[in-house]
Amino acid sequence: MRALYRTFLSTQVITGRLAGLGALGLLAVLLGAAVGAGQATDPLDEGIGLVSAYGLSLFVPVTTLVFASAVLGEPEEDGTLVYLWLRPVARWRLVAAALAAALTVSLPVVVVPLALAAAATGAGAALVGATAWSSTLATVAYTGLFTWLGLRVRRALVWGLGYILVWEGFVARAGGTASLLAVRTHTRSLLARVAGSAPELVEVSLATSVALPLLAAAVAAALTVRRLARQDVA
Q1: What is the extent of the structural domain holding 138?
Q2: Model pLDDT, residue 140
Q3: Number of separate domains in the chain
Q4: What is the pTM of this model?
């Protein structure tokens, strides 16, 4: 499994990809510094707003989409997945190695700059901790979902952006079941609860805000294993 992990990890560490997404992370830090320098009357609320609107709504899902959709999607499209598929290795091990590789790259690219951005706002340790927890949970959930998507459909980036922008950006805002099916709903609720402010962002309980994203990641991983076991790889 270590060899599989290293193989998948090597496909994730691409200089251009890391540089582009690193620039988005740097923008988050600059925005945090701007909030801190602006002498806001309530830096905690301003900081939560920044992390929610830019971090959890855009930076985290887009970054995770780029890495996770490619970890199995690119080998399938270029025909190299067959060499891994033909190995006498349990399919769940292939998926576990792919998920681990995607998370290894995504987590530091996402969590570190967002935590720095939260610190730069001057809102204190509560916001930094809440940002780290919520962005980590979001990355885990999106990694599961987008790894499955990358294996399931071609042009996974387009479909993934559609989910992020249309479903989570518009449909889920209507509330009800649609809201519960959006990762963003739960991670924003976790952010606000742990930080201790912005009650308008709290839509679900603390237990639900943690459990449902983890459940979504687990179900998506199981679907990825099932897909890999049943599809013909050529």
Answers
A1: 2-230
A2: 97
A3: 1
A4: 0.92
